[in-house]
Amino acid sequence: MQFFMYQDKIIVNYEGRPAYSIIIDKDFSNLKEELSRLKLENRRYMIITDSNVASLYLKECLDALSIDSNELSSFIFDSGEGSKNLDTVYKVYSKLIEEKFDRNDIIIALGGGVTGDLAGFVASTYLRGIDFIQVPTTLLAMSDSSIGGKTGVDFMAYKNMIGAFHQPKLVYMNLSTLKSLPEREFNSGMSEILKHGLIKDYDYYKWLCNNLDGIRNQEYEILKEMIIRSCHIKKNIVEDDPKEKGDRALLNFGHTIGHAIEKLMDFKLLHGECVSIGMVAASYISYKRGNIARDEFDNIIFWSKAFGLPVTIKDLSAKDIYRVTRLDKKMQSDKIKFVYLKSIGTAITDTSVTEDEMMEAIKYILER
Ligand SMILES: NC(=O)c1ccc[n+]([C@@H]2O[C@H](COP(=O)([O-])OP(=O)(O)OC[C@H]3O[C@@H](n4cnc5c(N)ncnc54)[C@H](O)[C@@H]3O)[C@@H](O)[C@H]2O)c1
Ligand SMILES: [Zn+2]
């Protein structure tokens, strides 16, 4: 099959019409031109970014934009999931108001999934919604979170409890920013990428496993092909079901139990790490239900570990994980809408998974 290997632009449709482009590039040099294509002249820009990304890429990004400083402002928050909340949103609103940003102005989210979710949520609600642009700098954000318009923040201990659908006007990724990403964060992003293969594309899953070394050594062409293939999977899912009325829920594979672990560990584990453990639990249910063979299940564990991801969790009790899993958003009439594999490369959602099955799967992922 002819693949999109050398294509560096993907168009995402929304409600049947082309809505925004995903640009895959090796630096920021085309960012300004891509923005000008959107015909957003005479607007002001607020770059929202976190403390780590600000020190690494804010200046480079500002230079690439070369916009008059009167037209450009920035908001920097402390990096980490702990900032993805309404307190930070409040501070951004205050800054936007102080600086008299109006409905024609634009927010640029420069950073990982935390920045994209937070800045996107601000953009979706400030003055009932203003335009925003995603400039993802983590593997997770490039391959998953910057696409599809899900924005939001955590509330109390609940993940992504407050949010909105708001599509970006552009997603511009500079793959060179991955060079500075800590290895643990890179691995965390691999979890969502493995998820794409497991739920939608067996060949892609095999390709990922066959290219382990090239991926872990961050060989540019391999990374680019991988990100493009993941973006296509995400694009197809969100185009078919933008508001998660059906198949978009498949992207939650590993997330129901994963989110519970993320909360119970008080965000000490990274999102992708929790998703990896959650995917093992969901795969265990797939195995127990006879959908995948034991060796296929063992293989999923083998490759998750090979990509540097955790597959078990210690210091938590099965009861607690189950209890918090039931508090997650993915409930339908008091039943958990659970995603598991029909085979490797195909996932399904189902509300028939029983408490006993869940408990057995959770016990499996507890470190013995
Ligand atoms: N909206 C969606 O569809 C969606 C999908 C998946 C995940 N998410 C969300 O994404 C979040 C996780 O995203 P994440 O893993 O990108 O986390 P993140 O945004 O916290 O970034 C991870 C860390 O890497 C740092 N960083 C970012 N880019 C860097 C770079 N180029 N070099 C060095 N350091 C860099 C950040 O400062 C941070 O410390 C979670 O909140 C999750 O819920 C959203
Ligand atoms: Zn996720």
Helix and strand layout, with pairings?
Blueprint: E1 9-14, E2 17-25, H1 31-37, E3 45-50, H2 51-65, E4 72-77, H3 86-98, E5 106-111, H4 113-125, E6 131-136, H5 139-145, E7 150-155, E8 158-165, E9 170-174, H6 183-200, H7 202-210, H8 212-216, H9 220-240, H10 255-264, H11 271-288, H12 294-306, H13 318-325, E10 331-332, E11 335-336, E12 338-343, E13 346-350, H14 355-365
Nicotinamide-adenine-dinucleotide is lined by residues 50, 52-53, 56, 79-81, 84, 111-115, 117, 137-138, 140-141, 144-145, 148, 150, 160, 177, 180-181, 185, 188, 192, 271.
Fold and architecture overview:
It is a single chain. The chain has 368 residues and is α/β, with parallel strands linked by helices. The protein folds into two domains: 9-180, Rossmann fold (3-Layer(aba) Sandwich), CATH 3.40.50.1970; 183-365, Dehydroquinate synthase-like, alpha domain (Up-down Bundle). It has 14 helices and 13 strands. It has helices at 31-37, 51-65, 86-98, 113-125, 139-145, 183-200, 202-210, 212-216, 220-240, 255-264, 271-288, 294-306, 318-325, 355-365, and strands at residues 9-14, 17-25, 45-50, 72-77, 106-111, 131-136, 150-155, 158-165, 170-174, 331-332, 335-336, 338-343, 346-350. The strands form four sheets. It has a seven-stranded mixed beta sheet, with helices on both faces. It has a two-stranded antiparallel sheet with strand order 7-8. Strands 10-11 form a two-stranded antiparallel sheet. A hairpin with a 2-residue loop joins strand 10 (331-332) and strand 11. Helix 10 packs across helix 13. The longest helix has 21 residues, at 220-240. The radius of gyration is 20 Å and the shape is globular. The termini are far apart. Residues 1-7 have low confidence and may be disordered. The structure holds nicotinamide-adenine-dinucleotide and zinc ion (ZN). Nicotinamide-adenine-dinucleotide binds next to helix 2, helix 4, helix 5 and helix 6.
